[in-house]
TrEMBL record, chain A:
InterPro entries: Adaptor_comp_med_subunit, AP2_Mu_C_sf, AP2_Mu_N, AP_mu_sigma_su, Clathrin_mu, Clathrin_mu_CS, Longin-like_dom_sf, MHD. It comes from the Eukaryota. It is found in: Cell membrane; Membrane, Coated pit. Belongs to the adaptor complexes medium subunit family. GO terms for cellular component: clathrin adaptor complex; clathrin-coated pit; plasma membrane. It is a peripheral membrane protein. The lineage of its organism: Eukaryota, Fungi, Dikarya, Basidiomycota, Agaricomycotina. GO terms for biological process: endocytosis; intracellular protein transport. Residues 169-423 form the MHD domain. The keyword Repeat does not apply. It comes from Thelephora terrestris. This is Clathrin adaptor mu subunit. PROSITE patterns: CLAT_ADAPTOR_M_1, CLAT_ADAPTOR_M_2, MHD. Keywords: Cell membrane, Coated pit, Endocytosis, Membrane, Protein transport, Transport. Signal peptide: none annotated.
UniProtKB/TrEMBL annotation, chain B:
GO terms for cellular component: endomembrane system; membrane coat. It comes from Thelephora terrestris. Adaptins are components of the adaptor complexes which link clathrin to receptors in coated vesicles. Clathrin-associated protein complexes are believed to interact with the cytoplasmic tails of membrane proteins, leading to their selection and concentration. Belongs to the adaptor complexes large subunit family. Its main location: membrane. It holds the Pfam family Adaptin_N. It comes from the Eukaryota. Residues 660-673 have a biased composition (Acidic residues). This is AP complex subunit beta.
Length: 424, 758
């Protein structure tokens, strides 16, 4: 169990400190500062010294740190740190030194609520917000009744939802967001292509709505059931706490009572039939030791009605590059010496089109023996209304006892950031 | 989303100022804003580590204000300083008691929670009565808070908790209608049961089933506590194990990776008690995808998953068998992920995927992180040894790497090449000239020793072996022991091959003289004497002994012992699984786990069983009266406690250390008795030693958890490791068990000869 919880800033100063069990003293913070914050080569998120283990997660130059003295459930400790960060985000937007200091009293209140004696407790954001507020509460008799409603909810079977939610207009927004991870060899063979998908939902629905969610008809969730050629195959999926797993197990229907507001309904992974929206063809030639020539072609591989936006192509250059001349018909290409890359930005690209960059890098002579490691080309992009896995939302049904009409919206987004790589 | 504006309060202040401000706030403080501000400043100073305890009485005064926010801050102050003010704490007790009886459940819970955080007798005394009420409070929020309070009370004063009947009350909460109360009660009981000095916490099938009913409705954390407690259920019947497994298998679809890993832990545990092959296969198949999915979480959780996958695939090889691709490193993965993935890639490599794996490894060998590059190169060599059909292409790629002339790449490549020679005798010696070209690049002992071994072993094929050796011997006295040992053996081999060569004769003479006269290291000196006599008595027989055909090495010793694996997998998801060590070996007071032998335990698991002997002898169960989930015919499995054990436990508590050492020795004997193959490997008493050996015994592996652990205060662990390292370094051949064999052989031969000669 977690014995102490700290937040450190980049300088190693403690900005939140809460001891949760009597087996540690506050001075333990100094050990972490020396071992991790002032250590330039930290190579593990967990450090164990004696019986004491330090778990840390970094967020915007802050260290969120949990310390344990026993054989702690490491996955749980990290999940707890992640949860803490997402709660903070939901309460005050950004999590950085400024915002933590601005809300430190609130943070202490939150910590007291979401972890007790090192055991993580109910941490559903929606419920927390009903009784840990930024404005002052007066403890009076009238509050007592209100409170028991809250406590029943906070400990009950649908701890994620209040019972008294009311909206004039009942709406539900579904966002399917897919991140494509690609690793392609220099010869154009796909070494690895997979989709990391998330279905995010914003539910503004009154009462206790019972929802049923449907995806593609030809959807294969268990790989062992393989057979259909063009089916969308999900290797695995994970659901929000609210989804009835037993029902999914027996009938493959996703049914749930959603939390109020925004939440991640489901995440999934797919590795078969991945449609790669962007193709990259690169020819890179090292001209002796004096230069490197580049010809990089980007092709969009989807319907012409759609378009890719915010394309950023990062083309690596050798460390001893002095200058790069680039020619591009579309967008802007610039050599960034600090990162040893040429950054090529394209605002928008229609489906089914292609553009080519040609460039020449001039090198200085160097004494280093090591050959250029040739890091991969990396492409970031976004394509709206396109899913690389082929996943489609077929229906979202809402049943509520007052049987109101509800409006549902679905959006799709496929993107890559830092993980769409083509080796040279 | 409202932004607080408290950052300006986050600065150091003086006790005097705060006291004055608090005093001033007592009058004319509409809406208590002044008081709130001062308290916030005080909390900020507590955070920064300024001692605010002198303000105790002043802060306590603020409890009179009806603002919940102020109350919470005062309570936070009390949690921080209550322990250091036992003489003043009585001032707040009335206020605590009042709050414990507030109409608002949130306040009641807050009060009992805060009191239980102050572990001093006055507060504990006042709390016990309140706690009893709270455990039966009509509001579930209060009950769930009170459940954890029992664990706190037990940590402070176990006797009081037992005498007060709190453990029984906690047990009754296991059947509470509210899922959160149930899961917190489970968490508290588990903690108490893990202490090894009093109550034991076991589940019977009936209760385990009841808990599973609460599982579906629990919060994610509650699910973890409940799932975790299932380890306390020991199936007597394979049917029970199978049924439980079927009920929890769907939890692997949960979004929280800790729920997933805990579920996997329980499934792996239950599989030991199943005999339905089909079900076991089904579970294994279901286990892969959720594990892979965790790899799209944050890097920290990925790391936890990867370290666990490494264990799981050794025990259940069908899991992830075809998924080596998902473990290919991303360019921007943190280094600890890359290293963890590398080990898994090696383990999943086989003939069918060797080509892809090799292509990846080659890619990694050109990256920038030195540690990663070295391990990649080493993995190429290991791959050659593991997968025979891939050996050719692995050698090709090692040669390419050697051509780069990057020192650490070359050194690493040479180290593995030596092993490849031993694995495939007579196949790749053609590359020796290429290796010899890079002699000057070697500056690390391990690489140097490997190269010297190669020169010595194949001195008959290297034309200028004597010249090379002559150069190498030049700095003999400055070399490390590892290199000196290699030089000694190599020069003897050289002499045997080329006994006609004058250089070789001089060389061996020089080296033997140095080792026997100038060197202090007994290993080296003894070996020097041994060779000297061998050569002096009968060079021909000496040749037979020294150049005896070496058994080819295999990668079998890479795998962890099955029994040890079973035991380690009971800690899936925890720190122990990350360091691949049983927690009781590196965490003080951690509870060890083992499979319990019942009729349901399957045959192989039983044969491999590794016994953990607890410092405390098994205690006789004592029946506890009172309501609760007791089943008449299976009483012994219900939570039981024994009063007598508390005393013995405390007595033993102090002298834990010597006990632990004894246990380990016993464990070693146990293993030997059980499986003959362990006997051969007496060198590696530590059942995990082999796993760490996969990537060699590099001292500079920063991420290697063991290196962090070895800084621990567990001296015997350290000592053992050291002993082992010494043993390893004394040998000239890489494969530990075999080396021992040849060494013993040569000693036997030596004895024979000396008998004949003298």
């Amino acid at each position: 169990m977690i014995s102490a919880f700290f937040i450190f800033n980049q300088k190693g100063e403690v900005i939140i400190s809460r001891l949760l069990r009597p087996d540690l003293k506050r001075s333990i913070a100094d050990v972490f500062r020396i071992q991790v914050v002032s250590n330039s080569d930290v190579r593990s998120p967990i450090i164990t010294l004696g019986s004491t283990s330090f778990f840390h997660v970094r967020v915007n130059n802050l260290y969120v740190v949990a310390i344990t003295k026993n054989n702690a459930n490491a996955a749980m400790v990290f999940e707890f740190c992640y949860r803490f960060i997402s709660i903070c985000k939901s309460y005050f937007g950004k999590v950085d030194e400024e915002s933590v200091k601005n809300n430190f009293v609130l943070i202490y209140e939150l910590i007291d609520e979401i972890v007790d004696f090192g055991y993580p407790q109910n941490s559903e954001i929606d419920t927390l917000k009903t009784f840990i507020m930024t404005e002052s509460i007066v403890s009076s008799a009238t509050a007592a009744e209100e409170s028991s409603k809250i406590t029943t909810q906070a400990t009950g079977a649908t701890s994620w939802r209040r019972t008294d939610v009311k909206y004039k207009k009942n709406e539900a927004f579904v966002d399917v967001v897919e991140t494509v991870n690609l690793s392609m060899s220099a010869k154009g063979n796909v070494l690895r292509a997979d989709v990391d998908g998330h279905i995010l939902m914003r539910a503004y629905l009154s009462g206790i709505p019972e929802c049923k969610f449907g995806l593609n008809d030809k959807l294969v969730i268990d790989k062992s059931e393989k057979g259909l050629g063009d089916a969308v195959e999900l290797d695995d999926c994970r659901f929000h706490q609210c989804v009835r797993l037993n029902e999914f197990d027996s009938t493959r229907t996703i049914s749930f009572i959603p939390p109020d507001g925004e939440f991640e309904l489901m995440s999934y992974r797919s590795t078969s039939n991945v449609k790669l929206p962007i193709k990259v063809l690169a020819t890179v030639n090292e001209i002796g030791t004096i230069g490197v020539s580049y010809i990089v072609t980007i092709k969009t591989n989807f319907d012409a009605k759609l378009s890719a936006s915010n394309l950023v192509v990062r083309i690596p250059t050798p460390l001893n590059t002095t200058n790069v001349e680039c020619k591009v018909p579309n967008g802007k290409a610039k050599y960034v010496p600090a990162e040893n890359v040429v950054v090529w930005k394209i605002q928008r690209m229609q489906g089914g089109s292609e553009v080519t960059l040609s460039a020449h890098a001039t090198l200085t002579s160097t004494t280093s023996k090591q050959v250029w490691a040739r890091p991969p080309i990396d492409v970031d992009f976004q394509v709206l209304m396109f899913t690389a896995s082929g996943l489609i939302v077929r229906f979202l049904k809402v049943f509520e006892k007052s049987s109101y009409q509800s409006v549902k919206w679905v959006r799709y987004l496929t993107k890559a950031s830092g993980s769409y790589q083509i080796r040279l | 989303m409202s932004q607080g504006q408290d950052a300006k309060l986050f600065q150091r202040g003086k006790i005097q100022e705060f006291r004055a401000e608090l005093l001033a706030a007592e009058s004319k403080d509409k809406k208590f804003t002044k008081r709130k501000t001062v308290l916030k400043k005080i909390v900020a100073n507590i955070t920064m580590g300024n001692d605010m305890s002198p303000l105790f009485t002043d802060v306590v005064q603020c409890l009179g204000t009806p603002l919940l926010e102020i109350k919470k801050m005062v309570y936070l102050f009390l949690v921080s300083y209550g322990r250091s003010k036992p003489d003043q704490i009585h001032l707040v007790i009335p206020s605590f008691l009042q709050d414990c009886n507030d109409r608002n459940p949130v306040i009641r819970a807050l009060a009992i929670r805060t009191m239980s955080y102050i572990p001093i007798p006055v507060v504990t005394e006042a709390m016990t009565d309140q706690l009893r009420h709270c455990l039966k409070d009509k509001d579930p929020y209060v009950r769930k808070t009170a459940a954890i309070c029992v664990a706190k009370l037990y940590a402070t004063d176990p006797k009081k908790a037992e005498r007060g009947g709190f453990v029984e009350m906690l047990r009754d909460l296991l059947v509470d209608p509210n899922p959160t109360v149930v899961s917190n009660a489970v968490a508290a009981l588990s903690e108490i049961g893990d202490r090894n000095d009093g109550v034991t916490f076991k589940l019977n099938f009936h209760v385990a089933n009841k808990l599973l009913t609460a599982l579906g409705e629990s919060s994610e954390w509650g699910q973890i506590y409940i799932l975790d407690s299932l380890l306390r259920f020991v199936p007597d019947d394979t049917k029970d194990a199978e049924m439980l497994a079927e009920r929890i298998i769907i939890q692997m679809q949960h979004a929280n990776s800790a729920v997933v890993l805990t579920t996997i832990k329980i499934l792996l545990y239950l599989m030991n008690y199943m005999d339905n092959r089909k079900l076991v296969d089904h579970i294994c198949k279901k286990m892969g995808p959720p594990l892979v999915t965790i790899l799209s979480s944050g890097p920290e959780v990925q790391y936890v998953a990867l370290r666990n996958i490494l264990l799981i695939i050794q025990r259940r090889p069908t899991v992830l068998r075809n998924d080596v691709k998902v473990f290919f490193c991303k360019y921007n993965d943190p280094i600890y992920l890359k290293l963890a993935k590398l080990e898994i890639m090696y383990r999943l490599a086989r003939e069918e995927n060797a080509r892809e794996v090799l292509a990846e490894l080659e890619e990694y060998a050109s990256e920038v992180d030195i540690d990663f590059v070295r391990k990649a190169v080493r993995s190429i060599g290991r791959l050659a040894i593991k997968v025979k059909p891939a050996a050719d292409s692995c050698i090709q790629s090692l040669l390419k790497l050697i051509e780069t002339k990057v020192t650490y790449v070359v050194q690493e490549a040479i180290i593995v090449t030596k092993d490849i020679f031993r694995r495939y005798p007579g196949q790749y010696e053609g590359i020796i000239p290429t290796l010899c070209e890079n002699l000057d690049l070697l500056d690390e002992p391990e690489a140097k020793a490997a190269m010297i071994w190669i020169i010595g072993q194949f001195a008959n094929r290297i034309d200028n072996a004597d010249e090379l050796m002559d150069d190498l011997v030049y700095s003999f006295l400055e070399e490390s022991t590892e290199v000196q040992l290699a030089l000694l053996t190599a020069s003897v081999k050289l002499f045997i091959y080329k006994s006609s060569s004058e250089t070789a004769k001089q060389l061996v003479h020089k080296v033997l003289k140095w080792t026997t006269e100038e060197i202090d290291n007994p290993d080296l000196r003894d070996r020097g004497f041994m060779y000297w006599r061998l050569l002096a008595i009968n060079p021909a027989v000496a040749g037979e002994i020294v150049l005896v055909e070496k058994p080819a090495i295999t990668t079998d010793s890479d795998r962890m012992d099955r029994g040890a694996l079973d035991q380690l997998l009971l800690h899936t998801g925890t720190l122990g699984s990350i360091y691949h060590k049983n927690p009781e070996t590196f965490i003080r007071g951690a509870a060890g786990r083992q499979l319990i032998d019942t009729p349901a335990l399957n045959q192989t698991s039983r044969q491999m069983l590794v016994i953990v002997t607890h410092p405390n002898a098994p205690r006789a169960p004592v029946k506890v009266s009172g309501p609760g989930p007791l089943e008449p015919h299976r009483e012994k499995q219900a939570p039981v406690r024994s009063d007598t054990m508390v005393e013995t436990g405390n007595l033993l508590g102090e002298g834990n250390e010597p006990n632990v050492i004894e246990d380990e020795e016993e464990e070693g004997e146990e293993e030997e008795a059980l499986s003959p193959h362990v006997k051969l490997e007496q060198v590696s008493q530590d059942p995990y030693a082999d796993l760490d050996g996969v990537f060699g015994s590099h001292g500079d592996q920063v991420d290697e958890p063991q290196s962090a652990v070895s800084q621990a205060s567990i001296e015997d662990e350290l000592e053992r490791a050291q002993r082992q390292r010494q043993q390893t370094s004394t040998g000239s051949e890489p494969a530990k068990p075999k080396r021992n064999g040849t060494f013993r052989q040569s000693i036997a031969a030596f004895n024979q000869i000396s008998q004949l000669g003298l």
